[in-house]
Amino acid sequence: MQEQADVDPRFELKIDPGRALPEAIADKLRQLVEEGEYKPGGRLPNEAELARKLKVARSSVRTALQRLEAMRILEVRRGRGWYVRRAPAESSGPLDARDYQVSDLFELRIGLEGLAASLAAVRITEGELEDLAKINKQHQEADDREEMLRTDVAFHEAIVRAARNTALERTYQGIIGELADWRFQSFAAPGVGRRSAREHSKVLRYLRNHDPGGARVAMNGHLQRLYDELPEIGAEPLDTTESVVDLDPEWRD
Prior knowledge:
With about 250 residues, the chain is mainly alpha-helical.
């Protein structure tokens, strides 16, 4: 009777056969955010407390929190804990991303991140370059999909921020959360993490050289490889190859 009394109905999980537990936890926490249980800017209970409330292992809670971070619903503040982002993910850009196919969003992502890399090559600071190198080293050394996803998200978002274009960043954040589950699944194949880190290193090299055209082509090539693996595009891969006359404008610094 005591055990039954300790069950909080707000934290009851729906566990469907074949569904990963962290996914169910992430959905429950997202529901609690949307219902106002945890408000924008508010702090969530710590991982141990959430695990107790949900009757699950702490490791599963951590994976769920990382998923919600990638979806731009939560953010982690080092040494302080997990917080709800002040701006909901759905309102961070002009699109309701859920109305579109993954390939639609990915095509837009390629355009936005290629432009971001080109701008960042002109505007990025030495400190930001060093931070990018550290993130990519963590990405290369990641030994599970959650850490691969976290470091991949951090790398790409750092380049978008370094572009110093608020409209671009907001549009990007409006769509990228909807690709979080697909990104997580993409790291399942053996060797994908190492290949991703190598391609990140190529982008980073062009950023260090302050080469806008090279950075854009390297980023587009990295993302186009992922796009070409989408099952819904059939035999019509996207071609973002640079032509002789496809030159970048002279961006302002």
